[in-house]
Amino acid sequence: MTKILPNCPFSIIGNPNAAIAAPYGAEQAAVLSAEGLQRARREITTWPGYQLTPLVKMPGVARAAKVDSLYYKDESGRFGLGSFKPLGGAYAVFHVIEKEIRRTIGKEVTSIDLLDGKHRDVVAGVTICAATDGNHGRSVAWGSRMFGCRCVIYINEAVSEGRERAIASYGAEVRRAPGSFDDAVRMASKTSAIKGWHVVPDTAAGGNAEASGNVMQGYALLADEVVSQLPADRPASHLFVQAGVGGLAAAVCGQFWQAYDETRPITVMVEPHNAACWFESLKAAEPVVVAGEMDTLMAGLACGEPSPLAWPIMKTGAHAAMTIPDAAAAETMRLLAAGGNGDQPIVGGESGVAGLAGFLLASQDAEARALLGLDETSRVVVIGSEGDTDAEAYNTIVGRSGDVVRASATQGNWS
Ligand SMILES: Cc1ncc(COP(=O)(O)O)c(C=O)c1O
Asked: Which residues are the active-site residues?
């Protein structure tokens, strides 16, 4: 078999506890529910700039990977922030403010009320705090500015200056914390407790399970969009989704599970080799914390601790887990940027393409194909969770800027 991604060793395991034909249960619904989605949809779709992000069909890569079809949910244009993250972080900011207004003056508010400037004095007294490896902080900072509250963001040493500048451009105060992403999460939680700030973590390990639940519920909107965008008579058979703390994976898996019940797609979690906490957790059938440098190009996935809120969904929702090398992400970014054979060029960032990279690696390996039941009839969905959120890194890896790639996509001569 000719390899689409040569020389990229990967690991894959089946989840021994995968729910094969089980319905979505009460344990999962306690985290993500139909009512929760309805609420998220009602708020988020009223924010300025809301649009369905594209579900791009990639017939050229599907042919090369010997599957029926491949769909790439391209989150690079979401609210102009470059990733899916505003769906979660900014939605959780809304809930903090909404609760604060209810607590102080006993009023129910919507996003529209806040955008209209109602209760500005209460909102201005709220300080939101979050830890981030880039995209979550940007989303929380953006949401805080949109609703009019103060925002403090902790980043760890490895976060690039480009990402730091992007967060600061939304008016947040950015502070560097020593150590890893998980250390920054602890610092944000501790400082917020002392100062009376509202911590909005993207992991329930971050000290505010309610906020991280809202983050995940906001993400679920993107999966709901995918369900509405896929042909109704040809649902997905496979989902490849990248994981950091697992919030995105749980949101997409949980939403597909509710939409399709026991016919939900085979779900594969994809992580970098060096930050594989979900791979280890599914293998051990309990949450496992992975230590070490977590040195990876896929900055958004450099997390060593599964989110305790994602666990009840993914412990049985995931059918398999993969770990991939940085080279696979870089190769996939270049492949997406090139387009051709009927595929439009797409700008996908380091973490954003990891699910697609995992799929490509599995598709070219006979054992992985057999394990996942991938064949010529498979209809695969991958979540393109970011674009060129770090423009410099993108340029270095792809050899062209995101703007040049976007321009080539609109010229339409790639087919
Ligand atoms: C671009 C991108 N993709 C995927 C993820 C993973 O999301 P989660 O940490 O919820 O698993 C992140 C997290 O920051 C991210 O920034």
From this structure: 85, 133
pTM exceeds 0.90 for this model: yes
Specify the residue with its C-alpha closest to ligand 1, atom 14: 300
Residue 327 within a domain? yes
- My answer on whether 103 and 173 are in the same domain is yes
Specify burial of residue 209 (Cβ count, 10 A radius: 0-12, 13-18, 19+): middle
Pair (180, 246) in one structural domain: no
Cα Dmax for the chain: 66
**Are residues 184 and 258 both part of a single domain?**
no
Q: Are residues 201 and 63 in the same domain?
A: no
315-344 tens-digit pLDDT: 999 999 999 999 999 999 999 999 999 999
**Residue-wise pLDDT tens digits, 70-109:** 999 999 999 999 999 999 999 999 999 999 999 999 999 9
Decide whether any atom of ligand 1 lies within 6 Å of the 241 Cβ. no
- Is the minimum distance from the CB of 136 to ligand 1 under 6 angstroms? yes
Structure tokens at 373: 């039941």
For CA atoms 254, 66, 53, 245, give the dihedral sign: positive
Q: What CATH number has the domain bearing residue 180?
A: 3.40.50.1100
Question: 246 C-alpha vs ligand 1 centroid, how far in Å?
Answer: 8
